[in-house]
Amino acid sequence: MNINPIVLSIPIFFVLIGIELLVERFTHKKLYRLPDAIANLSCGITSQLSGLFLRIFGVGVYMLVFENLALFTLDSSAWWYWVALILLVDLAYYWAHRMSHEVSLFWGGHVVHHQSEEYNLSVALRQSSLQVLWTFPFNLPIALLGFDTMDFVYVSAFNTLYQFWIHTETIGKFPRWIEFIFNTPSHHRVHHGRNPKYIDKNHAGSLIIWDRMFGTFQEEEERLLTGSPSPSTAGTPCGQT
Questions:
Q1: Over the stretch 184-196, which tens digit does the pLDDT of each residue have?
Q2: Cα–Cα distance between 222 and 209 in angstroms, integer?
Q3: Which of 35, 64, 174, 238 meets the CB 3.0–4.6 Å disulfide criterion with 43?
Q4: Around Cβ 30, how many Cβ atoms within 10 Å?
Q5: What is the pLDDT of residue 1?
Q6: Which domain, by its residues, includes 44?
Q7: How far apart are the C-alpha atoms of 63 and 69, rounded to whole Å?
Q8: Digit-coded pLDDT (tens) for 33-76
Q9: How far apart are CA 217 and CA 37, in angstroms?
Q10: Domain count, the chain
């Protein structure tokens, strides 16, 4: 039986949110508003339930491509196989995420993730149910190259899990080498900012190197202003457009 790592991690999500609430209490910073947090959690529950069939559809299409059209037969026991898969999954995420900001139709579904007026760990759970419809095609070249379906599913899940902890204002900047390679809370705060210089920047999943390579990187230089960063679409609750 295959276990979804994201579902298994739900208790950890709530433990980390609890820790952030303790930080809020002891530092006297206003990190959470109850209505906003409830909206974030309800969107997370909705996306997990209603988006299940769409995710199965996306994985099914990937499997069809892998089993019938793969160009290569790859050795999954080789170390380079996993390094390549991690990089390719993250690169595909970068472009899918970037297009979710730059294409108005796609932004209509993704905007829900940016509508919170606060920035905390609960925002990571605020996801659309529908965006898999236009993001899954970005993964199909990985299937064409011959990366096994379940390997892809697990690496994608862990890529998603990585992005949970970067939705916080309680962590500052890391040493420069970490900030140069990895997506961090500092980089992702920029992505969620509606400050003019921050809009449509830092689309990375786990590795910020893609933004540096493709010209969408922005250093965190001023305090974060939260809320929907694009005027192109007035998103509806939980991305149900």
A1: 999 999 999 989 9
A2: 21
A3: 238
A4: 8
A5: 45
A6: 5-239
A7: 10
A8: 777 877 777 787 777 666 677 888 899 999 999 999 999 999 99
A9: 29
A10: 1
